Amino acid sequence: MNKVILAGRLARDPEMRYTTSGKAVASFNLAVNRRFNRNAGDQQQTADFIPIVAWEKLAEICGNNLVKGSQILVEGRMQVRSYEGQDGTKRYVTEVVANEIEFMGSKQQRESSGGSFTPVESAPPTGGFGGSQVSDDDIPF
Predict the structure, then answer these.
(1) Inter-residue contact 29 to 98 (CB < 8 Å)
(2) Which helix (H) or strand (E) element contains residue 58?
(3) What is the pTM of this model?
(4) What is the pLDDT of residue 122?
């Protein structure tokens, strides 16, 4: 089974291209957090930058709606392809071909100016489930 699920933020705006037959292609890098142990019990955090490719309608949706910093969830498959470089050597590329992409941030965050993805303050709810207000401290996640 070849299935990849990643959650992260775009490292740059998607690059839109079209094949000679007119198919849309969007490519971008997804910054995904990873924790590791440097010493005994000392956890460090770093980011992996995973190349993502989306095709056709999904590519156009990405090009029209995603910007640097957008938080998304990608479901797809790992692909390794090869090509001959300008110097004649064979090169390999590993990338994730997206089948589905979920937008994880709020619409207000996605529409914020300049691609910055900072939280947007919203008005407090007037009534929660059952008509009573619930504070943020009472939410388990």
Answers:
(1) no
(2) helix 56-65
(3) 0.72
(4) 39
The secondary structure of the chain in percent helix, strand, coil, rounded to multiples of 5, reads 15, 50, 35
What's at 5, amino acid-wise?
I
Q: How far is residue 53's CA from residue 6's CA, in Å, rounded to a whole number?
A: 13
| Rounded CA separation 21/41 (Å) | 54
pLDDT single digits (tens) 30-52 = 999 998 887 777 788 899 999 99
Residue 8, classified by CB atoms within 10 Å of its CB into exposed (0-12), middle (13-18) or buried (19+), is buried
Burial of 95 (0-12, 13-18, 19+ CB in 10 A): middle
Q: CA 70, CA 82: separation in Å to the nearest integer?
A: 29
How far apart, in whole angstroms, are the C-alpha atoms of residue 53 and residue 38? 32
Give per-residue pLDDT as tens, 10-30.
Answer: 999 999 999 999 999 999 999
Q: Residue 64 contacts by C-beta under 8 Å, 6 or more apart in sequence?
A: none
